[in-house]
């Protein structure tokens, strides 16, 4: 009941309140919809931006580790490029270290190449050149000995007899991938730092291509942070570098070092690039060169924090927009409603007979103009009543009396019929025909029809022409060519007959016997094209130009009914594409083209 009462009091007869409510509803729905789509778009853009930042960082890590892999390989390749170094290292790996030292001294004393003894120095220099190298180890397959170089350029020789160590078995496995350091090699090298990864490269004898040992380089994974410094502030989530077996080579969160990665099965099942699960977004990059995997993980709660900030901002802005979008139109509508009610109140006063009421609104907008027009109308109404109204009443009484005194049309029809029959009885058949045509023409002109068709207008033209054919007898002929299918087409009354009359008055040559008039009607697309052609006097170019200007001018009050009236009525009723067009040559005749609309007999009333 409360809602119905509120509707009756505030909405039922209150147009402005309905408009305000409708506008507010549309505004709120529009702003909410726009805010939702903006939130969705901006949230997705924020997620994509975070993923792009992480992927860029992962690409840098991937390229960095690939570079370290190439750097480790280049140590051995650089050794092969120097034959003396290669020979010295080959000798060291195939003989006891004491023999290598003794052989080097003998070569030096004999004046041999000094680079024979520079093999270890070569490796020491490479360790110094790369600050991320923590240890560089050379393993001798024949001697089962591990040579360890640390950051202090100290050489440590560790025997690795198979009876006391698993290092020979470990080194026998062919692996060029980037992996975690083997626990037995760690123990031999004394390297227990969890932030290490190793790259192993086989060493072959340059002459026989026989594998004589292995190069193992331990890199510090902390060096990866150097390439992440630029993105560290914006980087979200965790970046991991994993070996194929799940070993953690690098962990930006520092929580998985020293233990296998627990979600390796999920990582292995992912394709390249991004994916998502219930907990977050996962991005995966693989490196074929070192056979390691770079994984980026961003938990959804971190991304949702950014989305919540975006949502709060959009909600605040949307609320402000809705508030002002409703407040400002409400104030405007209330003001317009107040002024409109004022106009209604004063119009009711006038309705009740108070012709002295005036609306006090001096503004220049539409309502102000309505108020001024209303006041001016009341002023003119008062003047009209005082000066004209009484005289108009007398004039109307006079006209009514005159109308009552007019001859009844039926009396005229009957009288013409009596005259026609009297003429026929006296043998004046031509006079009878003229009277019959005149009576039928008069009946057609004064008869009020709801729908006036092409057939009616052509019949009026025929009756009119029959009168003049009887008058001029053998001097004048006419023809009407038209498709009977167009008979029911509605046209404007008196749209053709004045053209025929114009020819009879101005174009007919009474002294000649070959006067002809042809009326042709056809349908051209959506128009009805009527052409009236005669062989009369024709029109001079100067007069034709005057007539064309005359046709386009406005019709003046009291002017006789003719071509200009037809042209103006057609253009006003049907548009500029309809109307009359004249063409003529002096002495040859005139052609009048009339363009009417095709309405296919639609319901309507004749104008």
UniProtKB/TrEMBL annotation:
It catalyses: ATP + protein L-histidine = ADP + protein N-phospho-L-histidine. The chain crosses the membrane at residues 20-39, 314-336. It comes from the Bacteria. Keywords: ATP-binding, Cell membrane, Kinase, Membrane, Nucleotide-binding, Phosphoprotein, Transferase, Transmembrane, Transmembrane helix, Two-component regulatory system. It is found in: Cell membrane. Residues 496-600 form the Histidine kinase domain. InterPro entries: Bact_2-comp_sensor_kinase, HAMP_dom, HATPase_C_sf, HATPase_dom, His_kinase_dom, Sig_transdc_His_kin-like_C, Sig_transdc_His_kin_internal. Residues 334-386 form the HAMP domain. It is a multi-pass membrane protein. The keyword Transmembrane applies. SMART domains: HAMP, HATPase_c. CDD domains: HAMP. The keyword Lyase does not apply. Its EC number is 2.7.13.3. Pfam families: HAMP (PF00672), HATPase_c (PF02518), His_kinase (PF06580). This is histidine kinase. It comes from Paenibacillus phytorum.
């Amino acid at each position: 009941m409360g809602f119905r009462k509120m509707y009756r009091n505030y909405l039922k007869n209150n147009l402005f309140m309905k408009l305000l409510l409708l506008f507010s509803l549309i505004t709120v729905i529009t702003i909410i919809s726009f805010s939702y789509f903006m939130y969705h778009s901006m949230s997705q853009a924020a997620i994509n931006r975070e993923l792009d930042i992480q992927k860029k960082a992962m690409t840098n890590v991937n390229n960095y580790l690939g570079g370290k892999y190439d750097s480790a390989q280049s140590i051995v390749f650089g050794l092969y490029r120097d034959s003396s170094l290669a020979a010295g290292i080959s000798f060291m790996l195939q003989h006891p270290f004491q023999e290598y030292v003794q052989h080097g001294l003998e070569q030096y004393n004999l004046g041999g190449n000094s680079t024979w003894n520079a093999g270890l120095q070569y490796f020491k220099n490479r360790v110094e050149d790369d600050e991320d190298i923590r240890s560089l180890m050379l393993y001798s397959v024949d001697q089962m000995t591990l040579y360890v170089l640390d950051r202090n350029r100290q050489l440590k020789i560790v025997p690795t007899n198979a009876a006391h160590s698993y290092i020979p078995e470990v080194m026998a496995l062919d692996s060029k991938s980037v992996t975690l350091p083997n626990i037995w090699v760690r123990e031999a090298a004394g390297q227990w730092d969890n932030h290490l990864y190793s790259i192993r490269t086989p060493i072959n004898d340059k002459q026989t291509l026989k594998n004589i040992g292995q190069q193992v380089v331990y890199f510090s994974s902390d060096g990866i942070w150097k390439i992440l410094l630029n993105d560290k502030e914006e980087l979200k989530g965790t970046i991991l570098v994993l070996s194929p077996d799940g070993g953690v080579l690098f962990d930006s969160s520092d929580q998985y070092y020293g233990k296998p990665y627990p979600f390796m099965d999920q990582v292995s099942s992912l394709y390249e690039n991004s994916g998502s699960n219930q907990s977050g977004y996962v991005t995966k990059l693989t490196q074929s060169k070192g056979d390691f995997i770079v994984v980026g993980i961003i938990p959804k709660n971190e991304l949702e924090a950014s989305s919540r900030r975006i949502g709060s901002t959009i909600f605040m802005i949307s609320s402000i927009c809705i508030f002002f979008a409703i407040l400002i139109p409400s104030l405007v509508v209330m003001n317009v409603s107040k002024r409109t009610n004022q106009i209604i109140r004063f119009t009711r006063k006038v309705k009740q007979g108070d012709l002295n009421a005036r609306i006090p609104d001096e503004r220049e907008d539409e309502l102000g103009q309505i108020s001024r027009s209303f006041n001016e109308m009341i002023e003119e109404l008062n003047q009209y009543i005082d000066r004209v109204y009484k005289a108009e009443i007398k004039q109307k009484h006079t006209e009514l009396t005159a109308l009552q005194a007019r001859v009844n049309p039926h009396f005229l029809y009957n009288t013409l019929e009596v005259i026609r029959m009297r003429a026929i009885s006296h043998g004046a058949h031509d006079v009878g025909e003229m009277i019959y045509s005149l009576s039928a023409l008069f009946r057609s002109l004064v008869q009020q029809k709801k729908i006036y068709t092409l057939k009616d207008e052509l019949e009026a033209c025929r009756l009119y022409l029959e009168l003049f054919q009887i008058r001029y007898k053998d001097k004048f002929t006419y023809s009407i060519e038209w498709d009977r299918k167009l008979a029911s087409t509605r046209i404007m009354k008196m749209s053709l007959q004045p053209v025929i009359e114009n020819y009879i008055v101005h174009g007919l040559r009474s002294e000649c016997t070959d006067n002809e008039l042809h009326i042709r009607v056809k349908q051209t697309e959506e128009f009805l094209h009527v052409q009236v052609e005669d062989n009369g006097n024709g029109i001079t170019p100067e007069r034709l130009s005057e007539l064309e200007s005359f046709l386009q001018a406005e019709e003046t009050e009291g002017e006789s009914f003719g071509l200009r009236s037809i042209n103006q009525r057609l253009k006003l009723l049907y548009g500029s594409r309809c109307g009359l067009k004249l063409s003529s040559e002096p002495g040859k005749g005139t052609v009048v083209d009339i363009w009417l609309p095709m309405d296919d007999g639609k319901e309507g009333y004749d104008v």
